[in-house]
Design a protein that fits this description.
The chain has helices at about 5, 20-25, 110-120, 120-150; strands at about 30-35, 40, 50-55, 55-60, 70-75, 80, 95-100, 100-110. About 35% of the residues lie in helices and about 25% in strands. The strands form two sheets. The chain has a four-stranded antiparallel sheet with strand order 1-8-3-6. It has a four-stranded antiparallel sheet with strand order 2-7-4-5, with no helix packed on it. It is an alpha+beta fold. It has a single domain, classed as Sandwich (Jelly Rolls). It starts with a helix and ends in a 10-residue tail after the last helix. The radius of gyration is 18 Å and the shape is globular. Strand 4 and strand 5 form a beta hairpin.
């Protein structure tokens, strides 16, 4: 369990009442990882919603047969990841790897979902915040995609 004051440090939790934060704090634990430590693996059941408290976490696609993984996104202090816990499939689709010693807050997803069902206001506030976060990420991805295609490249096959 973490303290309410620790949750208040993060934008994700700013809209919640003290009573709601007390409930969330009760199902949240701090987890520490060394550099190169894995928070979770792709394909594992999504049991937690995570918020980076300290450090840097890379979300990667790593296939056992590949020598190189693809880093899709980075999460730093105050940023959340692991939201697959809110999908129907409830499996992580990327691997979370710490690029440096990191502390993350891990919110028990099953208990959080129970709280959302029992307190629709809490659920609404949480989903609204997560939606805002993902919309911002969508805008960044859209900008990056635009940058990649706005200057056309000509690829020519050489004969022979």
């Amino acid at each position: 369990m973490v303290e309410v004051s620790e949750l208040r440090k993060f934008d994700l939790f700013e809209a919640f009442s003290d009573a709601q934060l007390e409930k969330i704090a009760g199902v949240t634990q701090r987890k520490s990882y060394k550099a190169n430590g894995r928070v979770y693996e792709s394909g594992e059941p999504a049991r937690y919603l995570f918020v980076v408290e300290k450090g840097l976490v890379s979300l990667r696609e790593i296939k056992p047969e590949d020598q190189i993984g693809i880093a899709f996104e980075m999460r730093q202090r105050g940023e959340l990841f692991g939201t697959a816990c809110f999908t129907d499939q409830r499996f992580y689709t990327l691997t979370g790897v710490c690029l440096e010693d990191s502390d993350v807050l891990a919110v028990d997803a099953d208990k959080l979902l129970e709280m959302c069902a029992a307190d629709p206001e809490l659920g609404y506030k949480l989903m609204k915040k997560i939606t805002q976060v993902y919309f911002e990420r969508y805008k960044v991805a859209k900008r990056q995609l635009h940058e990649m295609v706005k200057t056309p490249s000509i690829i020519t096959a050489l004969p022979g």
